[in-house]
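Lab manual, section 2.4: Encoding a predicted structure.

Procedure: take the sequence of the chain (102 residues), apply the prediction step described in section 2.3, and record the output as structure tokens. A sample record is shown.
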Amino acid sequence: MVPSLAYARAGVEPRAVLAGFRWAWFRCLDSYADELFELTDAVLTVAGPVCSVPELSLEPVHRRGHQMLYLALARARVDIVRLRRSLAGLSPPRSRDGRVRL
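Recorded output:
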């Protein structure tokens, strides 16, 4: 079981659920995991629309250069089966009335 699933079922804070999912996502990344993880953070934290891939390497959370970004995109592998299991079992945080909390 993915750590995030146990947190979600136990009613733990959404931040812990997110941390668990981030760990599960990192474990799905085969080679170039650190680079792809930083790329994911850059995509999620960029202020506006992304117009080009090198633009992401300018985000503060992306600590490697744009050359590593291209290398990781070309050669990295993601364990799709593991990712599918992580996503399928994830329960989004809900408020007391049952609505999903953002």
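Check your result against the sample. The mean pLDDT is 81.
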